[in-house]
Design a protein that fits this description.
The protein contains twelve helices and ten strands. The chain folds into two domains: about 10-315, Divalent-metal-dependent TIM barrel enzymes (TIM Barrel, Alpha-Beta Barrel), CATH 3.20.20; about 320-345, no CATH class. Helix content is about 40%, strand content about 15%. Helix 3 crosses helix 4, helix 8 packs parallel to helix 9 and helix 9 packs across helix 10 (about 300-315). Strands 3-2-1-10-9-8-6-4 form an eight-stranded parallel sheet.
């Protein structure tokens, strides 16, 4: 057990919720994007997750030199705040060119747009001294299966990964799987698919996964098992911790808010595997409750971070000798009771 790991935390500017949802008016005032970076350290966070247009707003309208200048300006801002850019992710789901997918779109022009946007994201990451690109393949999939040639789609995804590896010889690619939403049925829906894609690539050591708790739950899987699988292959680039109430829309609830025991097991797997000892961030992707008033609203972030650290102590204070005895005796009833009482602070 890596009991001395000092965890570093990250979140994205979008996690300081602005109070919008598809079914009604905003419930909170917007908080200026450029002011969010000054909040990170005060909240206990050292890393910044970025979409390409978080780093460089309106980048499709900018020249390469303008993109570079804007990214360089942000690098200075982050350095002045003592923050590390954890990754850059191409936002490939808002453009009119990505309605039918990006790298797997049927339209050659749409695929060309996606590749150009991806190269710009890598350029931005390079300008920020950021080592990773996250691929959330949000619209890579279909609403009806006959809409695309699925085998060709997977070949195109692999070709894109290889082209990214060739475009930048140092960048890592972290694939973030999700089984649905906004597409009905996504390609690369689980970490197993992502890791298979990694091993098929031209440089698999630079292709890893990013696991979000809610996405695993939406696939009917246990996030801790997904994390363990990636860790067993040394392919867990990062995590997005949150929670989810069943198989519905992606809720991004506070970590541990829906299932405390599942949260405990995620922390247990990360802690016992030494995650974070090589500088990996514990990323949070949590949204403020729709009903929460105020501006800016940040309690969902600090609460989730606090819960994670509390569960780290629960893992570190487990009686591992007793756990081993229960396992050896195959007395899982006793083991379960011990775990539950431990989580409740009972002896």
């Amino acid at each position: 057990m890596s009991s001395h790991t000092k965890y570093r935390f990250s979140f994205g500017p979008w996690n300081i919720s602005e109070g919008a949802d598809p079914f009604g008016p905003n419930v909170r005032e917007s908080f200026p994007h450029e002011q969010k970076y000054a909040l990170y350290k005060k909240l206990g966070f050292d890393g910044v997750q970025l979409h390409d247009d978080d780093a460089v707003p309106n980048l499709d309208a900018l020249s390469p030199n303008q993109i570079l200048q804007s990214a360089t300006n942000l690098k200075t801002v982050l350095q002045n705040e003592g923050l590390t850019p954890e990754f850059v992710a191409p936002r490939l789901w808002f453009s009119e060119h990505t309605v039918d997918g990006c790298y797997t779109a049927n339209s050659p022009a749409d695929r060309a747009y996606a590749w150009d946007r991806t190269k710009k994201s890598i350029d931005i990451a390079r300008a920020l001294d950021c080592k990773a690109i996250v691929l959330w393949l949000s619209r890579e999939g279909t609403y009806i299966r006959e809409a695309k040639d699925a085998r060709l789609a997977y070949e195109r995804l692999l070709a894109t990964v290889n082209a990214m590896l060739e475009y930048d010889k140092n960048i890592e690619i972290w694939i973030e799987p999700k089984p649905n939403e906004p597409t009905d049925q996504a390609y690369v829906p689980t970490i197993g698919h992502a890791i298979a894609l990694a091993y098929a690539s031209s440089d698999h050591k630079r292709v890893k996964g990013l696991i979000e708790s809610a996405h695993a739950i939406l696939a009917g899987l246990d996030p801790s098992d997904e994390m363990a699988f990636a860790l067993a292959h040394d392919k867990l680039g990062s995590v997005h911790l949150n929670d989810q109430s069943g198989l519905k829309y992606d809720q991004d609830k506070n970590f541990g808010g829906a299932n405390l025991r599942a949260a405990f097991n995620q922390v247990r797997v990360l802690e016992e595997s030494g995650y974070g000892s090589k500088g990996e961030f514990v990323g949070l992707d949590v949204k403020a409750m729709r009903t929460q008033a105020g501006c800016p609203v940040t309690a969902h972030l600090t609460n989730s971070r606090s819960l994670f650290l509390t569960l780290v102590e629960k893992v570190r204070t487990l009686n591992q000798t007793l756990v081993a005895q229960y396992r050896d005796a195959r007395d899982y009833e006793a083991l379960e009771l011990y775990i539950l009482r431990h989580l409740m602070g009972l002896r």
